[in-house]
Amino acid sequence: MPDTALDPLEDRQALEDLMTTLQQQEAEALEDLLATLQQQEDEALEEIARRFHLEEQANP
User: Fold this and answer.
1) Count of structural domains, the chain
2) What is the CA radius of gyration of the chain?
3) Quick check: is 43 in a domain?
4) Is 59 in a helix, a strand, or coil?
5) Is residue 42 part of a domain?
6) What is the pLDDT of residues 18-46, one digit of tens each?
7) SS3 content of the chain, % helix, strand, coil (to 5)
8) Has this prediction a pTM greater than 0.85?
């Protein structure tokens, strides 16, 4: 029966490659989440400013 086990160095390199890929994916996901949250914050602040302006016009 042929030996199909990975060499320990190959196994370690595969694990390091996987960890690097996961870290890159995590960083990208966090960047996307931050961009989304910033956009939502901007929209919420615009809505607050709009409502404040409308209230000022209604109650001078």
Assistant:
1) 1
2) 26
3) yes
4) coil
5) yes
6) 999 999 999 999 999 999 999 999 999 99
7) 85, 0, 15
8) no
